[in-house]
């Protein structure tokens, strides 16, 4: 049981195993060194110390992985596998993740930094849920027969089929490593694709372990390959002519580069990109509920969340009271090493990200925002990449901290009085991933939900996701929708078949 697990003991064992030898790439069902022989260090964000040396994949390794995926895709053992059996493999993988849940949660904590109890409840449980959900899709995803009216008057049977798109390159970020891998692998293999997963260089460990568990579940060699590496590995995957589809979650800047790189063979591309989500609070809102959720919406995972509610628009009549309550919620967060069961707020992912967040706080103050709380390293955390929960009050709509994605625990707070101006400011963004609305007026809630340009709108809640409901963004927050049938469609092609029965 999770409550009985000593995370420090599990971590000590894992660290011994990780230090024993460099971790290889997972290609064609085997752990292999990189072609170059190069490795790189993955670090514990809570300490800044090395966890493991990992084989550094590059273009040559991507070539091998793509070839392995193509062989697996064309192999009858996979291509002719029944939909039911494909679903059973996904169920078995979910069961194996559940069996190793605590170990995976601690491993994710070591590599990513977020508290292990959160990785257990969110990353691991979420991955189990996603694999089990998509295990049901292979037997339910198909075509249809359509009534057509040919000019010749011939008797025609027309039907459609759904076929896997082929070899899919999946590139996932460091903020939710395990669950983002599940979000992409589950529908891709449910649709019948074979994949190359390229995890973020900061967090390769659970991706490699997931690949091993897939083999243990019975997935044929080459169906799921894992190639850690840096930007050159991702670029090679995007540009590879043997890849039919790219699924990417990450920054908008990298998403634009992926679109350019994918043009060579016009491969299909889906993108889940950045966000600068508004939290809109009306005067009649339940301030206690709103404050708790607003704090969680920006401070969970240290603000390193694409949907983070980083722009707060509070009605002027309740703005001061609301901010005090949000600040009180922040004060209750326990900052520290994620292996400690009492910790509720871990480190940022890297020194680079720490420097970015700190610079934005300085920029916000220089532009005229008032530092209400936070804004620096906690005094009792000299090691690692810890940064305090931060609120910048009295922000203006043209400030960089309001317009640009910080990807850290920084809330920029604005006031409003005019509803039309509120909607204009909420929509005045390059992004459109998500939004939150807080009100007890059901009419106002629906009107605002309709007016705000975002792929997901939460009313009196925030950051709720489910594998059954679509997720994705408007504008520069991405292309396409993940989850549910929409996700299966991302990894498949529609074929129309005409049969003359005359």
TrEMBL record:
Q: Where is the active site?
A: 272
Give all residue intervals belonging to the Aldehyde dehydrogenase domain: 36-497
Pfam families in UniProt: Aldedh
**InterPro entries reported for this sequence:** Ald_DH/histidinol_DH, Ald_DH_C, Ald_DH_CS_CYS, Ald_DH_CS_GLU, Ald_DH_N, Aldehyde_DH_dom
Keyword list (alphabetical) reads: Oxidoreductase
SUPFAM superfamilies associated with the record: ALDH-like
Report the family membership: Belongs to the aldehyde dehydrogenase family.
Q: What is this protein called?
A: Betaine-aldehyde dehydrogenase
Question: Which organism does this record belong to?
Answer: Sphingomonas pokkalii
